[in-house]
Amino acid sequence: MTTQAAGVLVLAGTPIGDPADAPPRLGTELAGADVIAAEDTRRLRRLTAALGIEPAGRVVSYFEGNEAGRTPELVEALAGGARVVLVTDAGMPSVSDPGYRLVAACVERGITVTAVPGPSAVLTALAVSGLPVDRFCFEGFLPRKAGERLARLREVAADRRTLVYFEATHRIDDTLAAMAEVFGAERRAAVCRELTKTYEEVRRGPLAELARWAAEDGVRGEITVVVEGAPAAAPADLGPEELARLVAVREAAGEGRKPAIAAVAAQVGVPKRDVFDAVVAAKHAAS
Prior knowledge:
This protein is an alpha/beta fold. It is 44% helix and 18% strand. It is built from eleven helices and ten strands. The strands form two sheets. The chain has a five-stranded parallel sheet with strand order 3-2-4-1-5, with helices on both faces. It has a five-stranded mixed sheet with strand order 6-7-10-8-9, with helices on both faces. Helix 3 runs parallel beside helix 4 (100-109), helix 9 (240-252) packs across helix 11 and helix 10 crosses helix 11 (272-286). The radius of gyration is 23 Å and the shape is elongated.
């Protein structure tokens, strides 16, 4: 008696704009897949037409609304030996797109997961931003609610790494204004929209200036925001008020006061006692 060999899940990166950016292997995988799970089947048809291929396998939808329910079905197909190719609207599946549930389920079942590398909005935006790229952190989409958005931004306000965000057209002006409030009006950033598409635009400048531009002119299309990391501050440059503010930022993000004081002391290179005294002084000044 022979055992059915498990199939393979292929996470296929798709172009973020120009179909000509598609790697040759993408067409091969789409043409030969037993099953193609697509975030938008209409976009898939446009992509395969641009690549000049006709998929032979079954095409099913796999998007946020049916991801939980369809994952078991795809896992069973994979367990039965199918080669399943997962594509999202643009970029790499599971990176701020559907796919994580399916990958996790395959890993749990011991099913092989591989990928077709493709264009990345994160790396493309970083490369053209003009900001430091040696260390960066991808933060994905911020929360929709204003209070939650501010809290998330405060969590990384002192992060020295360059930060990368995705944002929706109708929220970009509010997001840039919140960033200017939390990170500082003069923190440098780049708003990258419609990357690799006909109307590609990269607008660079201080956050306050970008927030005004977005509010006045409007920003359309797929948007990636790149924000400069927090500047390194010499201990001598930080007075008690600034030390207390840094602790307050961490506390607002949910960190306890004692670990927040220790983290700020390590961050700026001063004794914990100095930070503690600054917090106490600020508390007394506010009472």
